[in-house]
Amino acid sequence: MKKTNSYLLLMLSILVIGIQACKKTVSEVSTVDYTVTVSYPDSYAQSKAANAKVTLTNSTTNSKLSVNTNTDGVATFAQLLPGNYQVSVERTLNASEAATLTGIETEAFLNASATNQLITVNGNLDLKLSGSAVGGLVFKQIYYSGSRTPANGIYLTDQFYEIYNNSTEVMYADSLYLGESGGSAKTSSTTAVFGFDKSAGNVYLVNVWMIPGSGKSYPIQPGKSIIISSNAINHKSDPAGNANSVDLGAGISDFEGYVASTNRDTDNPDVPNMELVQYGLSTFTWNTPVFGPSMVIFKSKNVASYRQLTEPGSTSSRLYMEVPGSVIIDAVEANANATAATHKRFPSALDAGFQYCSGTYVKEAIVRKVRTTVNGRRVLQDTNNSTDDFTVTTNILPKGWL
Ligand SMILES: [Ca+2]
Ligand SMILES: [Ca+2]
Asked: What are the chain's domains?
């Protein structure tokens, strides 16, 4: 018995020493408290990004720890083992969250990361989310109606197209195509309907321009726009201009359409020219129909391979570029009057409606409505229906607001 007791005592002692040794080992490895504070992009309505998933990956062990941010955008990693970590954050916004944060109701995926963070003491890391742009480039304003001179003459070289960054991120105008559909606006009951079949979803362009640049030469900030003018001069003060028109000179126009081949167009050296890709409906300077043009913007690397087609049912040899609807960024139809639905040139998936001015040379522009304002940035309405999305004004304000 005595021997057994001594043996048990010995075993107990070893056990106790062992436990104490273990305890000592654990308490000697000091941990740190680490936080990651996550914010939304500057263009968003709020800064603090709640419910973002923050993941710390230990560079040595590859073990991962994930914590969601609280309402202050803070993810807390308590008792973290010191070491080298890779930090990543992801946040998916559902359509309703995106609507609140960006003004545009569409799902968005945001992320952020920081590599090789040596974490040895208590601390915090700030990370700002970024991701795919919510929203895109849209036509903000199209001025096509022309104006009357003080002597009541007609004046139509003052047309311009304003393209707006309706997104949360910087976008680039480089290599953006601006295209004008073929087909006549409905000016009478006998006006021919454009002969192409719309059911395939394509558009058929008669004139096509491209903005130059090397890829990132022409940034457009969120909530900002560019002006593309047919002729980038101060039409009000130009000797050959029209005192009733608008100033579209340098500082207002970002690009102009210069038709070198006619030897009659004017080139303002202070305003970059667009590249003329296709000029099927040629006049000495580029004019779109004052009865209402149908315009698209698109980006594509395949323009050279797009089919060139004559209009079905027409004897004209004029060629139209067939551009697939899938590359169209924005499409806006204007036409002559309220009865012109029969003469739409675009598939309804690209623009379900159209807009019209009260007449020709009336100095009216069609202007996209403001849907909401987020953090000072106006978000324009884009339901792909110009009847709803646009309004008509006589107050022509390039880059301005009604
Ligand atoms: Ca011109
Ligand atoms: Ca120029």
From this structure: 30-131 (2.60.40.10), 137-393 (no CATH)
